C-alpha cells in the first residue's frame, strides 16, 4: 500500500471537502450508537467557509491511493486562549493501526507550533459502561500513547421529549419562591439588543466557571460583536437557538441556558451552555431557566424528540438538575490536553 499523503482541505470544493467529512463521520459513528455526536456536513462546511474573528480553522485529508483514510482538523483561537490549539484526528475503521493517525497528529502538532501554540486540546468518546478512564477504547488509548492526559471527563446524557407538563410545573413551582425578584426571559434566535452585553459577558465566563478539571483555559471574549458573528454563522449552518436568561433586579443577566436545533438532524436538539453567575447562585436559577427553555423548545419545535447534553462528571449540581428532568447517561467524552 502507498504511503499516506497529507493535503489541506478546500472547504469551497466539494470534491475535496466532502470525502474529508465522510472519513470524520465514519470514524465517529463507528464508536457505537449514541456515543458520538458528529457535526453534519453543511454545519462544518459553513464554519470553515465563514471564519470570523473568534478563531482560525483548517482541515487536512490523509490520502492513500486517492482515498481519504484519515482526517485532521485544527482550530486556534484568535481573541482569547491564544496559547491553545484544539485538534481532531479520525481514521476510517478499515484503515486503522497503520500509522495514519500518528502521521496526521504529528502534522497537526507541527502546524500548532508554527502558529505559536503550546497547549493542545483533543476529545475522544467511548461507551458509558466502559468507565471514566476509557480503558481499552481506541480514542483514549491513542491519546494516552501520544502524551495527552485526561484533563476532564464528561458524560453524555439523552432526554426523550416531550417532558410532561406536570413535571415541569412541579419543578418550576418548587424553584419559584427562591428567585423572587428575578425575571425569566425566553426567545428564539438572536439575543435581544437590551440583553446583548450581559449575555456576552456571562457566556464568555462559561469556560472558567464550569468545571475545568486540569484544563488550562481562560475566559473567552465578551465582545458583543463576536456574539453577532456567531449568530450569523448559526444561520448559515442551518441551526436555530432557543434561549432563556434570568435577569436580576438590577438588570444584569445572571443565568442563561441555550439549546440548538439543526435542519440537518430532524428530531434532535443539543443543549449548549447553562450557567448561573457565581454571586447569584442559591436561588435555583439553573433549574428555573432550564425548565423555561424546555417549555419554549417544546412549544416552538414540536418535532424534536431527543435532547442531548454533556456535563462534567464532577458537576454534581448540574447533573442533579438534568436527572430531575429525566436525562439518562449513554456515553462518555474525555477532554485531553498536552503541553508542547
From TrEMBL:
One of its GO terms (molecular function) is acyltransferase activity, transferring groups other than amino-acyl groups. Residues 4-164 form the N-acetyltransferase domain. InterPro entries: Acyl_CoA_acyltransferase, GNAT_dom. The keyword Transferase applies. Signal peptide: none annotated. This is GNAT superfamily N-acetyltransferase. CDD domains: NAT_SF. Gene3D superfamilies: 3.40.630.30. Keywords: Transferase. It comes from the Bacteria.
Amino acid at each position: 500500500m502507498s504511503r499516506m499523503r497529507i493535503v489541506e482541505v478546500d472547504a469551497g470544493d466539494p470534491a475535496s471537502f466532502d470525502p474529508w467529512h465522510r472519513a470524520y463521520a465514519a470514524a465517529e459513528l463507528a464508536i457505537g450508537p449514541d456515543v458520538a455526536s458528529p457535526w453534519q456536513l453543511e454545519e462544518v462546511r459553513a464554519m470553515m467557509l465563514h471564519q470570523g474573528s473568534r478563531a482560525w480553522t483548517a482541515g487536512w485529508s490523509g490520502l492513500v491511493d486517492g482515498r481519504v483514510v484519515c482526517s485532521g482538523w485544527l482550530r486556534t483561537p484568535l481573541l482569547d486562549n491564544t496559547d491553545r490549539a484544539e485538534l481532531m484526528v479520525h481514521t476510517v475503521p478499515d484503515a486503522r493501526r497503520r500509522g495514519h493517525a500518528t502521521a496526521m497528529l504529528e502534522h497537526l502538532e507541527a502546524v500548532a507550533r508554527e502558529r505559536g501554540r503550546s497547549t493542545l486540546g483533543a476529545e475522544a468518546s467511548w461507551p458509558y459502561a466502559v468507565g471514566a478512564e476509557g480503558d481499552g477504547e481506541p480514542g483514549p488509548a491513542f491519546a494516552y500513547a501520544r502524551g495527552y492526559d485526561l484533563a476532564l471527563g464528561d458524560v453524555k446524557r439523552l432526554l426523550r421529549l416531550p417532558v410532561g407538563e406536570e413535571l415541569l410545573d412541579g419543578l418550576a413551582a418548587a424553584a419559584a419562591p427562591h428567585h423572587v425578584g428575578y425575571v425569566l426571559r425566553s426567545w428564539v434566535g438572536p439575543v435581544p439588543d437590551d440583553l446583548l452585553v450581559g449575555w456576552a459577558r456571562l457566556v464568555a465566563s462559561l469556560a472558567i466557571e464550569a468545571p475545568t478539571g486540569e484544563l488550562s483555559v481562560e475566559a473567552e471574549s465578551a465582545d458583543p460583536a463576536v456574539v453577532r458573528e456567531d449568530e450569523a454563522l448559526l444561520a448559515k449552518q442551518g441551526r436555530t437557538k432557543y434561549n432563556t436568561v434570568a435577569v436580576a433586579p438590577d438588570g444584569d443577566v445572571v443565568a442563561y441556558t441555550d439549546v440548538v436545533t439543526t435542519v440537518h438532524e430532524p428530531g434532535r436538539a443539543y443543549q449548549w451552555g447553562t450557567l448561573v453567575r457565581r454571586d447569584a447562585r442559591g436561588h435555583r436559577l439553573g433549574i428555573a431557566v432550564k425548565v423555561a427553555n424546555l417549555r419554549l423548545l417544546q412549544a416552538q419545535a414540536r418535532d424534536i424528540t431527543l435532547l442531548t447534553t454533556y456535563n462534567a462528571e464532577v458537576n454534581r449540581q448540574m447533573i442533579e438538575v438534568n436527572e430531575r428532568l429525566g436525562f439518562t447517561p449513554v456515553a462518555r467524552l474525555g477532554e485531553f490536553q498536552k503541553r508542547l
